[in-house]
């Protein structure tokens, strides 16, 4: 009789416990954010099977790990624009001289350029010659002219040797009567070797003898009027034959009889 009274009490207790369990919030099976891994997997499987769109998954951003201090990159220096280079004028003269004996009609010039060229000209005949790679000759000429001594040129001396020179780079120049025998002989020999010997106008017979160990070069000429011309390359003043002198005619006649 007593046992029949206990069973209703037990059933009442079980019912109360069941009601209490139903009152707790259960996880939302449709919310992926609250689903357990197993529930999430079953949700994905069920959705894929039903053809429904999957809910967007959270995007995982890369985690940045701290690096060392940033080393500044070296700055490149800005190139400085220099002045525009001036083109070299290789025809710029570095030395010029004129060697003349008015009484003989002799006038020859030398012009040297920065490119080591030498232009030789015979102003009486118009002939001209250009020599290249003459640096050594130009250096010798410049050194001689830097120390040369000239005397005032006499106005009444047509047989005197006149020299005019200019050194543009050093600003030196001069003009006058050349009396240095060594320079006289050197100039005459250099011009004669390159332009040929000089003879007075209207020369019928002309002869130049080169220098030897004992004598300077000398020139002999007979002009059409019978005059005989003779001068040494080292002479500071050439003796000119007088008008009407027939020594040349006599000399030619004697030579024809040999």
Summarize the biggest pleated sheet: 7 strands, antiparallel
Q: Indicate the proportion of strand residues.
A: 15-25%
The beta-strand count equals 10
How would you classify the helix and strand content by structural class? alpha+beta
- Morphology call: rod-shaped
Counting copies of identical and different chains, the oligomeric state is single chain
Helix content class? 25-40%
User: Strand order of the main beta sheet, please?
Assistant: 4-3-2-1-6-7-5
Provide an overview of this structure:
- The chain has a domain at 93-256.
- The mean pLDDT is 80.
- By secondary structure, the chain is α+β, with helices and mostly antiparallel strands.
- The protein contains five helices and ten strands.
- The strands form two sheets. A seven-stranded antiparallel beta sheet has the order 4-3-2-1-6-7-5, covered by helices on one side. Strands 8-9-10 form a three-stranded antiparallel beta sheet.
- It is rod-shaped.
- The longest helix is centred in the N-terminal third of the chain and has 21 residues, at 2-22.
- Strand 3 (118-122) and strand 4 (128-131) form a beta hairpin.
- The N and C termini lie far apart (196 Å).
- Helices cover 28% and strands 23% of the residues.
Features:
258 residues, alpha+beta, 3-stranded antiparallel sheet, 10 strands, 7-stranded antiparallel sheet
